[in-house]
Specification:
- There is one protein chain.
- This protein is about 80% helix and about 0% strand.
- The protein is an all-alpha fold.
- Helix 2 (about 20-50) runs antiparallel to helix 3 (about 60-105).
């Protein structure tokens, strides 16, 4: 039986790293790192603003909803910062891995099995 076209395309795309270069990884990491930095400063600004303006209300429902909204806004900012920082470090490690693979691939003769 022959393999289905979708399975062979998935396998070939899994191993196809022709367009991926360390420079592209590092340039994309720089973009993602700048977004992570901007989100970090936004998170810091939001938390400082919330800390400087406490909630003044005698109604317990208002206080609980205010705390919930503040927690959600701060959490979303922190989550965005963490995701973009994680992606930045991941791309840096991919660039290092590609560089190491290319160095060792040039040093040793290729042996196809």
């Amino acid at each position: 039986m022959s393999e289905s076209p979708s399975k062979s395309n998935a396998e070939s795309s899994k191993n196809n790293l022709d367009g991926v270069t360390p420079f592209r990884c590092l340039s994309n990491a720089a973009v993602l790192g700048s977004i992570a930095t901007a989100l970090y400063f936004l998170t810091r600004s939001v938390t400082q603003t919330y800390a400087a303006k406490p909630i003044h209300s005698d109604n317990i429902a208002v206080v609980q909803m205010s705390v919930t909204v503040r927690t959600l806004v701060t959490g979303l900012c922190m989550m965005g910062t963490g995701v973009f920082a994680f992606l930045t470090f991941g791309l840096i490690f991919v660039a290092i891995q590609l560089s190491v693979q290319r160095i060792f691939k040039k040093d040793t003769p290729s042996s196809e099995t």
